Amino acid sequence: MLTPKPGPAPRINGPTVYGCRPGHPFLYRIPTQGERPIRFSAGGLPQELKLDAATGIITGVAPRRGEYEITLRAGNSHGRDRRLFKLVSGDTLALTPPMGWNDWYAHYDRITDQKMRAAADTMIRKGMADVGYQYVNIDDGWMNAEHHADPKRNGPSRDAAGNLLPNSYFPDMKGLADYIHHLGLKAGLYTSPGPRTCAGFAGAYQHEAQDARQFADWGFDFLKYDWCSYDEVIGHPPTLEEMKRPYGLMGGLVKAQKRDLVFNLCQYGMGDVWQWGAEVGGQSWRTAGDLGNELNRVFEVALANCQHRAWQKPGAWNDPDYVQIGYIGSGEGFKPCPLTPSEQYAFMSLWCLMASPLFYSGDLSQVDDFTLNVLCNPEVLEIDQDSLGQCARVVGLTADTFVMVKDLADGSKAIGLGNRGESPTEVTARWTDLGVHGEQRIRDVWRMKDLGRFDHAFASRVPGRALVLVRLSPGK
User: Fold this and answer.
1) What average pLDDT score do residues 135-152 get?
2) Domains recognised in the chain with CATH numbers
3) Which terminal residue of the chain has fewer beta carbons within 10 Å of its beta carbon, N or C?
4) Does the annotation count 290 as an active-site position?
């Protein structure tokens, strides 16, 4: 099931709404497919912002508080495209789920500055940035450790002034962030509220304010805050107040910086974090443990995540962990993802139906056409990036089959017909379960193909461990 390649004429992708904070540095690359060169323009762009007509990168300072209706345009010798884009300057970041790449499930604690720069280059060269992937995030392993098998990763945690020291594989953190920014992308990094990270590197404990300031001074745009060794400084089991305290502290510090930093809480769903993650300053939070190498659980993880849909909204996202397809890391290097092609399509479909953050975590140096196909279908990504920010509700049919229903901002619905069993079976989405009536148009979003008009239901034969993703719109 290959996605049709985009034509040579431009197509503007990405979100239709974007949040920023007034007076902070602004950076946005207009995601656009099509044959280069492409010329860009924008109507209604605030005077504080400047668009590079050749690259489609918007820079400047976020304008004063308010909503700005902007018309983005792209053109080449084959045609033109335009898209309405709302810029919301205020208190809320991540009005649509963040998208990007995180190195962990590719490189683990073997990550280097060189690999991060190469990943950013690949996101541009392979077209991932052209469909909306924008964050290039370092995970664990960039700081110094006390006892690591690689001696180049060992050293003092901090200098005499208490500043956190990167290890020798990261000689210039500001330079790394600047390199990512010059491509029109954003840079993210990782730490823990405990004295050590999960892989044994220096954490932020008792240096939170200094670290938040340093991250902002370096120019980073995203912070993943991983529970890890914080168990050592609190009671057992931790109280709800103890679970919230480190995230509230860092959330306030991050918000106080003079740049926008999206704050991701990684604490595995403890204390029903989806109920209070936004309260402590988070824009997203993990709702369960690491998906890790247990990729056979993607259906179960998604269905459990959907149970928390009531707490999700623009700027507040339930995070079921990273998308792991293509080549993923192991202790012995890299290995192909163990999922079948149908399971990989289902993986991506489930995450988009949930409006999950979309962070690919595989080896970008080996990314192939099939993997890019799964990651980069613009119609599928539109479902994830829809401005309503709704996580689909689940209609259970049998022990193995279900229908997922997601309302979209234009009045249409995204529908997933799921089968987590091993054998093919027919799955039916009935209008009574979907909350619609009358004639409806059905479009297969993976194949970018209209399937026709249907009166009362839509049925499809779904392979084992698979999901059929369609978009349903009123027939008239």
Assistant:
1) 97
2) 11-89 (2.60.40.10), 99-384 (3.20.20.70), 393-474 (2.60.40.1180)
3) C
4) yes
